[in-house]
Design goal:
Layout lengths: L18 H7 L11 E4 L7 H7 L3 E6 L6 H17 L16 H22 L5 E3 L12 E7 L11 H13 L1 E8 L12 H10 L3 E6 L10 E6 L1
Parallel strand pairs: 1-2, 1-4, 2-3, 4-5
Antiparallel strand pairs: 5-7, 6-7
Helix pairs in contact: 2-4, 3-4
Length: 232
């Protein structure tokens, strides 16, 4: 990407997306998964688990932060949204403004997501709907979920997470899925695609999984309009 400044955030942000964002990012028809089990990992402050459960989907979220009491996590959500939104200052032209109108609209979506999440999290804290865990090891049996979704960790933070972590994490996500895994995006913040993606696909193939790169009806980071689909 041209220019010296790019979007940056100091650490992995605990922010979330609305179900509408998920439907676009993952090219997802929720009605097709009614009655099925779905894992969101890492779930962050996303509204997906709450909304999916209201639509007769047995959805579970996993995140390192899910051992945090609700009020403390609410404060973390608000702080991380502020940090994430501040990162857009001066680099707005590096993003595609089709889904979102502007930075204020991004804040509106992410704020709506965390508010729905935190309300559901308060009601279901310690119930098993939101489990504290982290990749590359998950506390589930093989084939525990029909569909596994993973957004905004793998590939996006390629400078912080090494290749071995990516390899182990993708194999683990595939292990707990009975049908498929979808991972989005394939790029880091500056639009650079993960350079060893083909190697990861070869590792998955050797483990018996087929993969494809699929276009999605969503692009916010420039070039981030595809996902990795792993068929189990």
């Amino acid at each position: 990407m041209d220019g010296t400044e790019t979007y940056a955030i100091d650490d992995v942000a605990f922010i979330g997306r609305t179900v509408t964002e998920y439907e676009h990012m993952f090219d997802l028809d929720l009605s097709a998964w009614e009655g099925e089990s779905v894992l969101d990992c890492p779930g962050g402050a996303c509204a997906f688990v709450s909304e999916a459960n209201s639509r007769d989907i047995d959805a579970v979220g996993v995140d390192l932060m899910y051992d945090t009491p609700p009020e403390e996590l609410r404060q973390r959500c608000e702080e991380d949204i502020d940090r994430a939104i501040a990162g857009f200052d001066g680099v707005e032209d590096q993003f595609v403004w089709d889904f979102y109108d502007d930075v204020a609209d991004v804040r509106a979506h992410w704020s709506a997501a965390y508010r729905e999440f935190i309300e559901d999290y308060e009601q279901h804290y310690d119930s098993g709907r939101y489990l504290p865990s982290k990749l590359p090891e998950l506390p589930f049996e093989d084939d525990a979920f029909s569909l596994v979704l993973s957004a905004h960790l793998l590939f996006l933070y390629m400078d912080k997470l090494d290749h071995e972590f990516h390899e182990q994490s993708l194999l683990e996500l595939a292990r707990v899925a009975s049908d498929e895994v979808r991972v989005y995006p394939l790029e880091r913040f500056d639009g650079m695609r993960y350079p060893r993606l083909d190697e990861l696909r070869e590792v998955l193939a050797d483990a018996g999984y087929s993969t494809e790169i699929r276009s999605v009806p969503f692009e916010f980071q420039q070039g981030a309009d595809e996902l990795l689909r792993i068929e189990v």
